[in-house]
Amino acid sequence: MGDWFRHTIVDTGRLPLFCFFAAMVLSFLAIRFSTRMIRAGVRWWPGNLTPGGLHIHHAVFGIGFMLLGGIVGFALDPDLAGWRAVAAAIFGVGAALVLDEFALILRLQDVYWTQEGRESVTAVFAACAVTGLLVVGVEPENLTDLVRADDHGGLDAWVAGVALAALNLSLAVVTVLKGKLWTGLIGLFFPILLYVGAIRLARPKAPWARWFYHRPGERWARRLARARHREKRFHEPVARLGDRLSGFIAGRPS
What residues form the membrane-spanning segments (predicted)? Predict the structure, then answer.
């Protein structure tokens, strides 16, 4: 394990990224444990910080940690890998605190324990998934295409690299608009998923379905019916499983 960590993380210069990832995961678990204790009314838990009756959301502290970690990280000499890792960890703590209240920031309402508040958990899971892939050395195919074009040089290589990157990004946008967020995100690392996600039917409540499947005509009616059938047969069981996992980690909504 030690050899793997040294060769995969330290020797490749990904130690700051690993520290960011670890700090973000641990901080998210810690803050969710704290909020669940507060919600349960546990007497011995410190509880909300309310100076003068003003409730301070932990996203405020998260912004402070992100500023501190970001400024210090940019100011440090690149050779100070250890201190850069510390700065990355501080930034990870701040990112977790902010993302944990992503739904509140998005809606400008306190929806933390509502169904809409699950958007915060999804945001944290997505950030952890993408960062985890980067930590183990899996890079987005779009970035790889551009790096490859830069290595080979020449106008042809750049045109091909930019065109392929633009194609993959376009497919990712279409996939997300079809209601397949995870396929779109992970597909940036494994492009075959983007081709599958962009070709297949949209989920019935996705923007793509609202724009196209509700048009008059038998063709669009059949597509909408197929999308609803697939949603009920395949997506809903997976969504219920995801809700159970989210509820176990982050607490069930009201």
Answer: 15-35, 56-76, 82-108, 120-138, 158-177, 184-202
